[in-house]
Amino acid sequence: MEHNPANSNFIRNIIKEDLESGKRNHVITRFPPEPNGYLHIGHAKSIVINFDLADEFNGKTNLRFDDTNPVKEDAEFVQSIKEDVKWLGYDWDGLFFASDYFEEMYNRAVLLIKKGKAYVEDLSADEIRAYRGTLKEPGKDSPYRDRSVEENLDLFQRMREGEFGNGEKVLRAKIDMKSPNINLRDPVIYRISHASHHNTGDKWCIYPMYAFAHPIEDALEDVTHSICTVEFEDQRPLYNWVVAETEMESVPQQIEFGRLNITNAVMSKRKLRKFVEEGIVDGWDDPRMPTISGLRRKGYTPGAIRTFVRETGVSKGSGFVDSQMLDHFVREDLKLQTPRTMGILRPLKVVITNYPEGQVESLEAEINPENPEMGTRQIPFSREIYIEQEDFMEDPPKKYFRLFPGNEVRLKHAYFIKCENVIKDEEGNVVEIHCTYDPETKSGSGFTGRKVKGTIHWVEATQAVPAEFRLYEPLMLDEEPEAEVKADVADVEVKEDEIVEVEKNFLDRVNPNSLQALQGFVEPNMKDVKAQDKFQFFRHGYFNVDPKHSSADNIVFNLIVSLKSSFKL
Ligand code: ATP
Ligand code: MG
């Protein structure tokens, strides 16, 4: 796989030193998604970092589903995540589920209790919050903190057996209520949740919290470098505490990097789910979604996504990256591999009055002038063609070089035509243009008699294939939608009303014009296109055949990217 050592990546340096100093003799990384939604481009960053680093140091990368929260998780998401990782071009070594370790985790929690390092708490979530203190004030010990080991063992077992309702009790690590690091103020490590789990069914009604489960998962898999995003930085001391106190044999090292944020996109699965549930988009794979499946359906390529992610580098900071940078790499990737063709998005009929009625000729055109190996195609030409409405103006401004009464333009791959007459309906709308053509000016004939300033594209009308073109704009109006509220890593559940508050205002900023569908025509040689086929439509941009809505009767093309970019690398 392609590596660009020039890109800064401080994690690579840490791994290199670990191997050189003998601290490690092998490298294992992991990509640990929670199966509570579809992967997005931010996850692609984590995937590329983890797999590339292991690859570079002859190590291994596991795909591990961090499925410790039964209410939000689903087998559908497990399936889609596997597909997306593969599509991005990666193959995991081990495939694991955190839920397969529940028994092991339970035993480690029992070990903590026996060591006097964990206790069963009866306070409610709100009380726990109140007792925890703030950044300025130390926390207070819970009245249940000094329960005996025996009582704790008994209560924890009864929690497992289902004796208590949700929220009635939790298990907390006994660390330090006065620690300056709030994460160490006796974090909750187990909670009760009477809910069916996608993998373990109804076997469990207590589930480990992320902060407890994750280090154990890493250690059990002998992960050497546990790479995560910066919001976990303050949790690192807790991570290390769990590994040490549960007496794990293998000691992983947590390393944090800055999240990837992209302009005009929200990237939390919770918010993306909201788009799906509210019907704002057509599923998780809607081409406007920053999900991997959305980008795939829009027509982005895995190679372009990998290059983009690598070029953004690996650092501690998480600023916004301009979405145009991703588009730039998509164009670069598509330029040489996609066939070029002509399509009319907003048709206007042109009749070439001096072209013999009933005659159709076949013109030859290169499929991709930048890649001659792709060969040529045949395009029919006859008396009736379609052009773009915007390529004709009855009353043009200065410097308009396309069609207007009396003006001559070049039809790409065909002839010069001259506008002679404009046909209108009763309301004065232009319905048809009458032109004449000059047979001497055939493309490729070497005609040098005179020059024209405009070249426009067209499609022969009698054989044209109807097609729908879907044009997209970003879903979010804000260039930098407010960064993710990382509440779900806290040791107690986020309050529903907090979430609702966040979601209410981000939905207000959805772009109402993010999708525009146009009914036009494409060349007849396009009639057998298949899902995910990609083309460059002359003067318009790159398009992908929509895998969900395209059919033989109605071909649907999604705009991938336009041709022009103001982006400078
Ligand atoms: P979300 O809030 O979107 O659900 P998450 O962090 O909760 O994101 P996980 O399924 O837990 O999602 O993430 C799996 C891995 O992907 C984690 O290691 C996480 O840090 C990483 N990741 C998630 N979002 C980003 C991002 N925007 N940039 C880089 N890495 C990310
Ligand atoms: Mg999450």
Automatic annotation (TrEMBL):
Protein name: Glutamine--tRNA ligase
Residue numbers covered by motif 'KMSKS' region: 266-270
A Pfam family this chain is assigned to: tRNA-synt_1c_C
EC number(s) stated in the UniProt entry for this protein: 6.1.1.18
Subunit composition and interactions: Monomer.
Presence of keyword Cell membrane: no
The gene coding this protein: glnS
Motif ('HIGH' region): 33-43
Assigned keywords, A-Z: Aminoacyl-tRNA synthetase, ATP-binding, Cytoplasm, Ligase, Nucleotide-binding, Protein biosynthesis
Sequence positions that bind L-glutamine: D66, Y210
Annotated GO MF terms: glutamine-tRNA ligase activity
Glutamyl/glutaminyl-tRNA synthetase class Ib catalytic domain residues: 27-335
Enzyme class: ligase
Subcellular location: Cytoplasm
InterPro entries documented for this protein: aa-tRNA-synth_I_CS, Gln-tRNA-synth, Gln/Glu-tRNA_Ligase, Gln_tRNA_ligase_bac, Glu/Gln-tRNA-synth, Glu/Gln-tRNA-synth_Ib_cat-dom, Glu/Gln-tRNA-synth_Ib_codon-bd, Glu_tRNA_lig_a-bdl
Domain Glutamyl/glutaminyl-tRNA synthetase class Ib anti-codon binding: start-end pairs: 339-438
Catalytic activity: tRNA(Gln) + L-glutamine + ATP = L-glutaminyl-tRNA(Gln) + AMP + diphosphate
Residue ranges occupied by any tRNA synthetases class I (E and Q) anti-codon binding domain in the UniProt entry: 455-546
Positions of ATP binding: 34-36, 40-46, 229, 259-260, 267-269
Keyword Membrane: no
UniProt similarity note: Belongs to the class-I aminoacyl-tRNA synthetase family.
